[in-house]
From TrEMBL:
Catalyzes the acyloin condensation reaction between C atoms 2 and 3 of pyruvate and glyceraldehyde 3-phosphate to yield 1-deoxy-D-xylulose-5-phosphate (DXP). One of its GO terms (biological process) is terpenoid biosynthetic process. SMART domains: Transket_pyr. It comes from Thalassovita taeanensis. Homodimer. The gene is dxs. Residues 324-489 form the Transketolase-like pyrimidine-binding domain. The lineage of its organism: Bacteria, Pseudomonadati, Pseudomonadota, Alphaproteobacteria, Rhodobacterales. Gene3D superfamilies: 3.40.50.920, 3.40.50.970. This is 1-deoxy-D-xylulose-5-phosphate synthase. Thiamine diphosphate binds at residues 79, 120-122, 156-157, 184, 293, 375.
Amino acid sequence: MPDTPQTPLLDQVHIPADLKRFSDAQLHQIADELRAETVSAVSVTGGHLGAGLGVVELTVALHAVFDTPRDKLIWDVGHQCYPHKILTGRRERIRTLRTKGGLSGFTKRSESPYDPFGAAHSSTSISAALGFAVARDLGGNIESGLGDAIAVIGDGSMSAGMAFEAMNNAGHLKKRLFVILNDNEMSIAPPVGALSSYLSRLYAEEPFQDLKAAAKGAVSLLPGPFREGAKRAKDMLKGMAVGGTLFEELGFSYIGPIDGHDLNQLLPVLRTVKARATGPILIHVITKKGKGYAPAEQARDRGHATAKFDVVTGKQKKTPSNAPSYTRVFADALLDQAARDDKIVAVTAAMPDGTGLNLFAERYPSRCFDVGIAEQHGVTFSAALAAGGMKPFCAIYSTFLQRGYDQVVHDVAIQRLPVRFAIDRAGLVGADGATHAGAFDVAFMANLPGMVVMAAADEAELVHMVATAAAHDDGPIAFRFPRGEGAGVTMPERGEPLEIGKGRMIQQGKRVAILSFGTRLSEVIKAAEALSARGITPTVADARFAKPLDRDLILGLAADHEALITIEEGAIGGFGSHVAQLLAEEGVFDTGLKYRSMVLPDTFIDQASPEDMYTTAGMNAADIETKVLDVLNIAHIGEKRA
Ligand SMILES: Cc1ncc(C[n+]2csc(CCOP(=O)(O)OP(=O)(O)O)c2C)c(N)n1
Ligand SMILES: CC(=O)[C@@H](O)[C@H](O)COP(=O)(O)O
Ligand SMILES: [Mg+2]
């Protein structure tokens, strides 16, 4: 594939309506050009590549047949939407994907009227499409108009409970609605579970589409070529009982499987359903993740996500790392614990590589469970594993754990079951932006009675926290750690369980104490060094625990200092709120203590590098220094930021 693609037809497409001027044969060429443009753009920005390449033809066909933005096209997750962005007026900015001030890597309402519903977490598209269909039928009125509603959902995302909740509701409401099931036999990792096997069976039987259509009398819904095949199949079917697909049982008409890379199939099918559908229809398309770009097709994850790369060789341009990633440190520490305790089991919700549990699965296949994109189930499953005498480590990104929150409360915390939550991607994550920020877990975990909540200040601490969690049998426990590489500290040979609810002193100083929870500690230390150079040496401590709080440490710091500042990589309502509550309850504020809490601001921060995002959040060393000077009333305005 060339580095700078020639795109003579694509150059004439500024909005999707332009596609309607081209013949079907020309649409084939546009699809080829769109694929090349997508590869070229992602080579510059990095990002989600494979999923977009797999839906190039589908994107062209949907936009050529339907009338967006009046028709609402809703991409599940949204990680496959780069070709859609190119066709919907954002081509000029496509090489800003996932960068500060640039295009989001997902669909986003504020970005374009062609993104009617934002996403980034999976399995929401059918609910959203149904909502638009119902709003349309009830006379809803929005600027872009309300036409058809089309959800495009992948086979991995289809496995989540939410998708089936929506199918159940849609089948009942019988609204005209289109669900395109984009089946590429991949999630981020190979998909798991019975639904995945079911889908494979659906298309393993070649004449299936004909047989099914004939059996259900849906022949008239199919375009010419299929109709003939179906009639032939009907003859073959005489006397043969064919059961409905799962989707038909849920009230959908089922069409497929069809080849999602063949516009000669996609265009007539979409045109037919657009002209004739009255109720909910599921169109099952078969595609290849990474289609058309060999390095993606051949990658283990089919090019799911990539760093910047060289288009010709496919070689990724990764910056060399100085320390192991937190994820890797967690994975190794867990393996170490698991080697000594055969009750330890691990649970991931479709993120084996992202959580590092792929290593656990390799070593202990029968003790590792990928439950698919099913965080709610994963949490309750872990709760029952704990109830059954196992020691589950439930490894879920902070942002995705939000989806399993009632299960955390109802199934884990209320029953005081010792589930160990390994919360990866805590804090601001960078290019994935606000949807993936691990901002809320401290707030939503630490308010639960009986939940222990820890944050690792560095990778050595993480090893100890894994050991602490393994040893903790008296109720649930959670530890959080960020995306990316560790601080490069000396690693302990082995993790040692920490005393629950005890922090540690880092340096003793005067006047002001900074109490850090999590990996901002390195910024705190930088700030402390800068302040020392000014003659103010702060006390620095690492809280380790947000729940239970180290009361002695906190009350001691409050008693011995004029001011106390807490800092954490989380939103309002987290560690700092618990500290404030303690100080208030103990009457410490009455004694005149100056208290400040540094938390993420009460806004959603758009994508940028994590460093830039923390600058926006006002949580880097310079901000901490400023906070200290402010609280001590030391004049500095203009001086530091000039
Ligand atoms: C609730 C939730 N859990 C996990 C993820 C992480 N994730 C993003 S894409 C993806 C795989 C989706 O697979 P599929 O829907 O088949 O799309 P494909 O990438 O194959 O096109 C996963 C697990 C997510 N975005 N949302
Ligand atoms: C789309 C999605 O949700 C994932 O692919 C996510 O982008 C992975 O993030 P990490 O790169 O932090 O694993
Ligand atoms: Mg898939």
